[in-house]
Amino acid sequence: MLADNENLIIELTDDCEKIFYHFSQKEQDEIIKKTEYLGELYITDRAEFYRNAHQPVFFKLNNKFDSSLYYFRIKRDLKMIASVDEDPIFESVTITLLSVFKDGHIEKNFKSAAQSFYRQFVNVEQI
Fold it and tell me: What are the angstrom distances between the C-alpha of 19 and each of 26, 93, 96, 99, 111?
């Protein structure tokens, strides 16, 4: 877990953690800072959050759930893919980092992260 306060939890998948530590300390700090900023936006200003969040590919899970995966630009040459999930019972938001990358293959990276993240669902349909 990278950060944790009453309302925001930030996590990395095992795959993302392996990638994360290959970045410089400065880039790691930028990733954490941007993720915290996005989490706070999700909690306080949903409209601004969605201006920063992008879904290059849409998925429907088990024919009833919309995907909570988004890609975000950290800076010009650094991007991340993360899931953003709200837990109304515990009044918290969890951001799970799935991938951080520098290349421009956003759709390819997004599909790969989605396939890995959603493998527990029986029916994942790209729409």
Answer: 15, 23, 14, 7, 17
